[in-house]
Amino acid sequence: IVLTGGDDRLWKTWGFPDGNILLTGEGHTDWLSGCCFRPSGTQLVTSSGDTTVRIWDLSRRGCILTLRGHSRAVCSCSWHSCGDFVASASMDGTSKIWDVNSERCRYTLRGHEASVNSIEFLPFSSTALTSSADKTLSLWDVRTVSRL
């Protein structure tokens, strides 16, 4: 299965290698910038120009949680390997670590001088990597909200 999101405000799962659309999700009000499966494969996360991050349940075929807190478009999202945390990166110059179970922002990462374009968790660790339009990369310990 391949997961995509685009300017049409939709995410889609595609059967591979046939290329048939298996599921489609709608709910964002602007372009999708990122999408990622939960490690268990039962849910996915999307990020959007509408400033939100959404969690989708594939069995329910709908959005089960909308995370709000960024003031500008969200450029990227990723899921931690444990499945309990989602990270987002935004044009507002911040990244956020969201606790999916409590449905709230756990930490806001500040330090870039421009848009944060991407964020990824390093597998099986508490470290996140961000990239920014300020032409820097940063490694973060998300437990202490500090740069490494």
From TrEMBL:
Transmembrane spans: none
This protein's encoding gene: Spag16
Protein's name according to its UniProt entry: SPG16 protein
SUPFAM superfamilies: WD40 repeat-like
Coiled coil: none
Species name: Brachypodius melanocephalos (black-headed bulbul)
Pfam families cross-referenced by the UniProt entry: WD40
Alphabetical keyword list: Repeat, WD repeat
WD repeat windows: 25-66, 67-108, 109-148
Alphabetized PROSITE patterns for the sequence: WD_REPEATS_1 (PS00678), WD_REPEATS_2 (PS50082), WD_REPEATS_REGION (PS50294)
GO biological process, one term: axoneme assembly
InterPro entries on file: WD-F-box_domain-protein, WD40/YVTN_repeat-like_dom_sf, WD40_PAC1, WD40_repeat_CS, WD40_repeat_dom_sf, WD40_rpt
GO CC, alphabetical: axonemal central apparatus
Keyword ATP-binding listed: no
